[in-house]
Amino acid sequence: MKPVNQKAWLLILPVLLCVAFSAILPLMTVVNYSVQDIISPERRVFVGTEWFAAVMRDEDLHAALWRQLVFSSSVLLCEIPLGIALALSMPAAGWRASVTLVVVALSLLIPWNVVGTIWQIYGRADIGLLGATLQALGFDYNYTGNATHAWVTVLVMDIWHWTPLVALLCYAGLRSIPDAYYQAARIDGATKLDVFRYIQLPKMRGVLMIAVLLRFMDSFMIYTEPFVLTGGGPGNATTFLSQYLTQKAVGQFDLGPAAAFSLIYFLIILLLCFILYNWMQQVGTTTKESEHG
Question: What is the pTM of this model?
Fold first, then answer.
């Protein structure tokens, strides 16, 4: 038997070291903090699962979790259809396609803190185009004083920032469909709706799954944009889970509860992504069976 060459593992050793340094070691540190009461740098008391129980009883956490779930669901319900529609309307080839791709991707190049600053100015009634326009139309728009206005502004800001990502992924999926499918559809006299339903949408299923998972995970961890725009206010209207965690760890310096909540936060994201992924896989399998049936 020919001996197996194990030297290839040496090629991925730098990657393993980087992952261990950037992910595993910090995670183990958080686990260590989550079971201790850190009184001072030199004095720590083991408390077991006390912080986990305390965090799970926290009503502010429950409210932040509910706001986060509503926000992430709203993001998906808005950005996925808009991204598909934008991808369908983009030119397929030529210089127009190149120009459109560059224009669509512009918002993705803007740093998150700059996005929050842009919308902070944009929404002001005295100097911002959006705020001044709404005030001129008779709407008493004030994202700093009205909880509903603040929440909707954060949602619209996220849609503006990240819908192009969904559009670019869908556009790549559309461009990968062979022309033979469209030729067969024209021969059969299929309408545009039929082409979208039976050709384009099934062929985009893979990229849509990536788009949904990416946007869900990213929206569930949103921090910088609402922090810069509203600071989590007014009140706690736009205080999502990441901001709640930051308040615990940095503002109140409760490292034990903050570490426990970090692990719970991590597990919540894993669980929801697992459920979402399996649901999309099941929907895809059901669709395939109905097409072949």
Answer: 0.84
Q: Is the dihedral of CA 101, 106, 107, 109 positive or negative?
A: positive
pLDDT category, 145, cuts 50, 70, 90?
confident
Closest by Cα among 159, 154, 157, 133 to 144 = 154
Instruction: Give residue 60's identity as a one-letter amino acid code.
Output: D
Give 86's pLDDT tier (boundaries 50, 70, 90). very high
Q: Do 24 and 159 fall within a single domain?
A: no
Tens of pLDDT, residues 220-275:
888 989 989 988 888 888 889 888 888 887 777 778 888 888 888 888 888 888 88
Tell me, yes or no, whether 227 and 113 share the same domain: yes
Instruction: Give residue 221's identity as a one-letter amino acid code.
Output: M
Check whether residue 198 and residue 269 sit in a common domain: yes
91 and 137 housed in the same domain: yes
* CATH classification at residue 114: 1.10.3720.10
Rounded Cα gap, residues 206 and 210, in angstroms: 7
DSSP for 48-99, please give it: TTHHHHHHHT-HHHHHHHHHHHHHHHHHHHHHHHHHHHHHHHS-SSSHHHHH
> How far apart are the C-alpha atoms of 259 and 245, rounded to whole Å?
9
User: 14 lies in which domain range?
Assistant: 9-48
Residue 282 pLDDT greater than 90, yes or no: no
* Torsion sign (Cα): 84, 90, 91, 96: negative
217: exposed, middle or buried (Cβ count in 10 Å: 0-12, 13-18, 19+)? middle
Place of tokens 């001996």: 3
